[in-house]
Write a structure and sequence with these properties.
Blueprint: E1 3-7, E2 12-17, H1 22-39, H2 44-60, H3 62-73, H4 77-101, E3 105-107, E4 113-120, E5 123-127, H5 135-147, E6 150-154, H6 160-172, E7 180-182, H7 187-195, E8 199-205, H8 208-220, E9 224-228, E10 233-237, H9 243-255, E11 265-271, H10 272-287, H11 307-322, E12 326-329, E13 344-347, H12 354-357, E14 364-370, H13 373-381, E15 385-386, E16 389-392, H14 396-403, E17 412-413, E18 428-429, E19 432-433, H15 438-441, E20 446-453
Parallel strand pairs: 5-6, 5-8, 6-7, 8-9, 10-11, 10-16, 11-14, 13-14, 16-17
Antiparallel strand pairs: 1-2, 3-4, 4-20, 9-19, 12-13, 15-18
Helix pairs in contact: 2-4, 2-5, 3-4, 4-5, 9-10
The chain binds NADP nicotinamide-adenine-dinucleotide phosphate.
Length: about 450
């Protein structure tokens, strides 16, 4: 079965869906193209009515949307509610600001007048991951629909109900048919969509492997793409860090969303003089987590998204240990139904160990002890990824100086408060290219058209 909704809390199959037929897919693309021809000419105010309505519906039905993702991919219910609320905020943010973000920009040539105007480019194809089943969709939908583009979206195989719910949200908000279309399609069909001349851009959030495949296909077709890929963010603890403030963020940074966040804190790089104290307190805090039904408010650790994700993570931990890493805690599945993994800490990870370079997408801490700030920076930068990272110190200026030397798309000092509609999100290196959110996200798929006017004498 192509798309399967399985509750990772107990392994029960909830629903399954077949791939669309070729004829259904063709109808969806044709409808999107037709829709674009009218949507592109609507005013910002007209588009904002629909996008604001979608935001309001999300805000009005937080529990319904949240429950669906909790049963489909195991997100703890309070985190799910937060995601739904934030997704609504993102839609409302773009409804409010799109017109000013895309306003014509006056230029000052030596002769005549000139400006750059932003116009929509067409139907965009989005490929999205399961870890934030609504937020990922809101990031592209808010910006791109307000910019005048329309979307066809392939969501992840394990969250078909959330994918369908989001499509329904836009329909209920009054979006014309073809504005936002969910595609239940295979990889082969996805390749065909990228090749289709009606598609004018491709946005993917997902793994490096998916990014390579989809970006290559878009490249062959000379289509603009944005790639939001994985990460292995450093959490750098300096010798003067306030551990009372740092430890709760370390736990949240690694364990939020079951540890399945691209910009989660994954490599904990701690100065030697504070390392023992940090590690002891971090371990105690992780041991205190209570695994359980993610629908239960008292649960502090939910399952991983799927059984396959758990099996892969356990294999990665085994490979790390075989490669010489030490297991300070955890490393096994939790003895209960569902796809639960013990919070895990790996230490003594040397270069050459697969764990040194790979992304752990779940509750696994990679712990490194370093002698100096320079060593911390070198280790943080010795990564194929470049998504985010954080620095912890009581000297904010020192933290900012250090942040300036880390090669990533985002850095945080004394917080890892990633999520804000206003703040651009994205990475470099294998973490991808392009940005979503903020004033930058809406610029990715618009035509920046130069218009120069005024009678200028022809050269003779
Ligand atoms: P994934 O396997 O790459 O899946 C992501 C999406 O890509 C899914 O819809 C998947 O479809 C699709 N896909 C995969 N290969 C494809 C192909 N060859 N052609 C067309 N579609 C393809 O990623 P994941 O493991 O589910 O998600 C976790 C990854 O996403 C992590 O690496 C994480 O760091 C990254 N992520 C990045 C960000 C960011 O903003 N930078 C945000 C969230 C997650 P199926 O589900 O049907 O396979």
């Amino acid at each position: 079965m192509a798309y399967q909704s399985v509750n990772p809390n107990d392994g029960k199959l909830l629903k399954s869906f077949e791939h669309m037929s070729a004829a259904q897919l063709e109808r969806a693309l044709a409808q999107a193209q037709t829709c674009f021809e009218t949507w592109r000419h609507k005013s910002y105010a007209e588009r904002a009515v629909i996008v604001n309505k979608a935001a309001a519906l999300l805000h009005a039905h937080i529990d319904d949307f949240a429950r669906l993702e909790t049963v489909e991919m195991g997100k703890r219910i309070d985190e799910a509610r937060g995601e739904v609320r934030f997704s609504g905020d993102i839609l409302a943010y773009y409804a409010k600001h799109a017109e000013s973000f895309l306003a014509p920009v006056k230029l000052h040539p030596k002769t005549g007048k000139a400006h750059v105007e932003s116009s929509p480019t067409g139907v965009l194809f989005c490929v999205e991951p399961w870890n934030f089943p609504y937020y990922q969709l809101a990031r592209v939908a808010g910006a791109q629909l307000m910019a005048g583009n329309v979307l066809v979206v392939k969501h992840a195989g394990c969250v078909p109900q959330c994918a369908i719910a989001f499509e329904g949200l836009l329909r209920d908000a009054g979006a014309p048919a073809g504005t936002y279309t969910n595609l239940l399609i295979s990889y082969e069909q996805s390749d065909g969509v990228i090749d289709d001349p009606r598609i004018k851009g491709v946005a993917l959030t997902g793994s490096v492997a998916a990014g390579r495949s989809v970006a290559a296909r878009a490249g062959q077709n000379l289509k603009k793409s944005t790639m939001e890929l994985g990460g292995s963010d450093a959490f750098i603890v300096l010798d003067d860090a306030d551990l009372d403030k740092t430890i709760p963020w370390a736990v949240w940074g690694r364990m939020y969303n079951g540890g399945q966040t691209c910009c989660a804190a994954k490599r904990f790089i701690v100065l030697d003089s504070i390392a023992d104290r940090f590690l002891a307190r971090f371990k105690t805090a992780l041991e205190a987590l209570k695994p359980g039904d993610p629908m239960d408010e008292k649960t502090t650790q939910g399952p991983l998204s799927t059984e396959a994700a758990l099996v892969q993570l356990l294999a990665q931990v085994d490979a790390a240990v075989k490669g010489g890493a030490k297991l300070l805690m955890g490393g096994k599945r939790i003895a209960r139904p569902g796809s639960f993994m013990q919070p895990t800490i790996l230490t003594d990870i040397q270069p050459g160990n697969p764990a040194f370079r790979d992304e752990f997408f779940g509750p696994v801490v990679s712990f490194y002890r370093v002698k100096s700030e320079d060593e911390a920076i070198a280790l943080a930068n010795d990564s194929d990824f470049g998504l985010g990272g954080s620095v912890w110190t009581q000297d904010e200026a020192r933290g900012q100086r250090l942040a300036g030397r880390i090669d990533t798309g985002m850095m945080f000092v004394n917080n890892i408060d990633w999520a804000d509609a206003e703040l651009p999100f994205g990475g470099i290196k294998n973490s991808g290219y392009g940005r979503e959110l903020g004033h930058m996200g809406i610029q990715e798929f618009v035509n920046k058209k130069l218009v120069r006017s005024g009678h200028i004498a022809a050269p003779v």
